[in-house]
Amino acid sequence: MKSALITGITGQDGAYLAKLLLQKNYEVYGLLPRRSTPSIWRLQFLGIQEEVRLIAGDLTDFSSLSRAVALAKPDEVYNLGAQSYVGTSWQQPVLTAQTTGLGVLHVLEAIRLENSNSKFYQASTSELFGLTEDPVQSESTLFYPRSPYGVAKLFGHWMTVNYRESYDMFACCGILFNHESPLRGMEFVTRKVTDAVARIKLGIQKELRLGNIEAKRDWGFAGDYVEAMWLMLQQEKPDDYVIATGRTTTVRDMCKIAFSHVGLDYEDFIVVDPNLYRPAEVEVLLGNPDKAKRKLGWQARTSLQDLIQMMVEADLERVRKEVSGK
Ligand code: NAP
Ligand code: G4F
């Protein structure tokens, strides 16, 4: 039986990946950072909270990572833990650098110093491209991050490449474009919108305040994207891959899809609030997933329309229960 250690197991991707690996008969360990109330609701939502083994630890604490690797003896380590919200990275740049940047090095060092042969997956991001001049971004596009989050991820990305080249480690970076689901954090724009659509439809919210609705993103479904992470670690050689749908849509048009699913016109409810604009914006992201298709046999299966409808339906169900107290 193979074993895997997932940092960020309580996050959106961590929960979906844990479920996928359990289905593949892995023994799944997850790093659990100390919180006054542990946030295991996503594992509960997927019904796997009893099946994963949680190890106390934090990405900012090297010793806890070393201990986690020694305990789990993982064949594969997936580093998904991060301060992952771009907006917060301007308010907490040092924390973001320590968790999202230096944390990657802590995991790599834990693997190296424990003499572990674990394969390593790093959650890199399309935010690395930032102010790119390439209209379509691929593995060869130059990086130009636009936020403290993007800069921290750049450090993690190059550290991973460096450990692969320095120590012959089986280390891969997945350069994933935005991916969403009913388990997405509430602060990200798709979930903020689908939650608001449900509340407005059920009469408990009047308007939705957003920032830059002309920004474009290449949005896919998280459930599809975790399969690509696993596939990267099953190849003969380690490498880096762009994972995307190859389509881009404005926040405005994503709102249109969400509101029209419940028979509403988004223009009646959206208020553009300049206070929600970012200090530096990534205006357009559009990925070229050709390499992933050719080498991994992976492609996105869920359309944006289906994804947003799935999220609106899940939020309607949850908000209805909240309202009725059940
Ligand atoms: P997420 O839902 O925000 O999950 C982040 C996870 O990291 C949570 O489990 C969180 O635990 C954990 N974490 C935060 N600080 C930590 C620390 N100091 N020590 C240990 N764990 C810590 O993010 P996601 O959407 O699943 O994304 C997974 C990874 O992919 C992240 O690295 C993200 O930056 C990257 N990424 C995401 C996307 C996307 O569109 N979703 C695209 C590209 C790359 P708590 O919940 O307890 O705080
Ligand atoms: O949903 P977002 O906050 O995601 P963002 O910034 O693209 O980052 C996500 O995807 C990255 C991959 O590209 C990940 F690395 C990262 O961890 C995270 O998962 O914002 C998307 C767009 C932005 O242009 C933002 O300015 O939506 C725009 N937006 C407009 N109004 C808003 C809002 N974003 C948020 N969160 N909230 C708004 O009210």
What does this entry show, briefly?
42% of the residues lie in helices and 15% in strands.
Structural summary, described in words:
It is a single chain. The protein is of the alpha/beta class and 326 residues long. The protein folds into 2 domains: 3-179 and 221-243, 3-Layer(aba) Sandwich (Rossmann fold); 185-218 and 247-282 and 302-324, UDP-galactose 4-epimerase, domain 1 (Alpha-Beta Complex), CATH 3.90.25.10. Helices cover 42% and strands 15% of the residues. It has helices at residues 12-23, 41-45, 62-72, 88-91, 93-113, 148-167, 189-201, 222-232, 251-261, 290-296, 304-324; strands spanning 3-7, 27-32, 53-56, 76-79, 119-125, 171-176, 179-180, 208-210, 216-217, 220-221, 241-243, 249-250, 270-272. α6 (148-167) links the parallel β5 (119-125) and β6. It is globular. The model has no long low-confidence stretch (mean pLDDT 97). The structure holds NADP nicotinamide-adenine-dinucleotide phosphate (NAP) and ligand G4F. NADP nicotinamide-adenine-dinucleotide phosphate is lined by residues 7-8, 10-14, 31, 33, 35, 39, 58-60, 80-84, 99, 123, 125, 176, 178-179, 185.
In terms of DSSP E residues, the strand content is 15-25%
Gyration radius (Cα, Å) is 19 Å
Portion in helices = 40-55%
So what's the CATH class of the largest domain?
Alpha Beta
Largest sheet: 7 strands, parallel
**In total, how many beta strands?**
13
Low-pLDDT residue spans = none
Oligomer: single chain
